[in-house]
Design a protein that fits this description.
The chain is of the alpha+beta class. The chain contains 6 helices and 10 strands. The chain has a 6-stranded antiparallel beta sheet with strand order 7-6-5-10-9-8. A 4-stranded antiparallel beta sheet has the order 1-4-3-2, with helices on both faces. The relative contact order is 0.10.
Length: 296
């Protein structure tokens, strides 16, 4: 819940915030939300504006890719706000005005979660007034609420669709008895239904303590490929087989157990799930995506 202190009874900013919030809730996806917020600020204040979305809250599944905050690829003022979660400003030195602000970055936060950072700037000859800065502070507060509601609705709808796909996959494999045919059908159905880059199934060979490749969504896997046999306990797949616990890695570059494979050079995120029967590991399901943060 947001409370605005209106010092001037004639101030209609709160009405603009409410109208903007309603508009944001009607928009179909995150890209349109970002464009609407940026265009509103640019038109209202005659300034430059960029809304940086932050991981892990964006991008959202099932939507077109959107640009997100990446350390080193943004200005110092945006970097500082990401670290401190506090508003930051840049003022002109040596001006006759007191602390004339020409650049501002504000966190778009809800429940202490930084959904994004709003960065605005203007020509040094036209600094921002205190009223304009106050307007921006109110705007990001309302925008954060609308963005969070949009996120929750999008995730809810996506999970409902995923559940429907799981049911569809289950129905299609229910009558398949041959293990190799079943494995191939499962990997292909998961890839086609969910759009992942690679899906593979490995079965545990107790005698040799290895995981044997059974099937994948790839057309073929060369016999000399490291995908064919995985040592028990090594890498993500081997590790899940030894512990019986799933591993969901949203960014493989940050995972020490991840073992790069030339055949899967585009992998950005990976989810590895144990195949269990009565707490006994029979194999592993390996799912890989080209997109960081793909698993929700």
């Amino acid at each position: 819940r947001i409370f605005l202190k209106v010092s001037n009874p004639r101030d209609t900013s709160w009405q603009e915030y409410l109208y903007l919030g309603e508009e944001l809730l009607r928009l179909p996806d995150t890209m349109h939300v970002v464009q609407k917020i940026q265009s509103t600020v640019e038109t209202k204040l005659n300034c430059g504006c960029k809304l940086w979305l932050c991981e892990p809250f964006y991008p959202l599944p099932g939507e077109e890719p959107v640009e997100v905050f990446q350390s080193g690829a943004v200005s110092e003022i945006v970097e500082s706000v990401k670290q401190t979660k506090q508003k930051a400003t840049i003022a002109i030195s040596g001006s006759k005005q007191q602390n004339p602000v020409i650049e501002i970055a504000l966190p778009v936060t809800t429940r202490d979660n930084t959904l994004g950072i709003l960065h605005v700037w203007r020509n040094s000859s036209i600094p921002f007034t205190s009223v304009e800065i106050e307007y921006l502070e109110g705007l990001v507060a309302f925008a954060a609420v609308s963005m969070q509601v949009n996120r929750q609705v999008t995730l809810k709808n996506w999970r409902f669709d995923q559940l429907a796909l799981v049911r569809s996959v289950s129905a299609q494999i229910a009558n398949e008895l041959d293990l190799d045919a079943l494995s191939k059908k499962v990997t292909n159905l998961i890839q086609c239904s969910f759009g992942y880059y690679y899906v593979g199934i490995y079965t545990l060979v107790e005698e040799s303590k290895t995981l044997q490749f059974r099937a994948s969504s790839l057309e073929c896997v060369p016999s000399e490929s490291p995908l064919q046999t995985i040592i028990y306990g090594e890498g993500l797949v081997g590790g899940v087989a030894s512990t019986g616990k799933e591993i969901v890695c949203q960014d493989v570059t940050m995972e020490s157990k991840y073992l790069p494979i030339d055949d899967l050079s585009e992998t950005a995120a990976e989810a590895v799930l144990p195949l269990l029967v009565e707490n006994r590991v029979l194999g592993v399901l390996d799912i890989q995506s080209r997109t960081r943060g793909a698993f929700h």
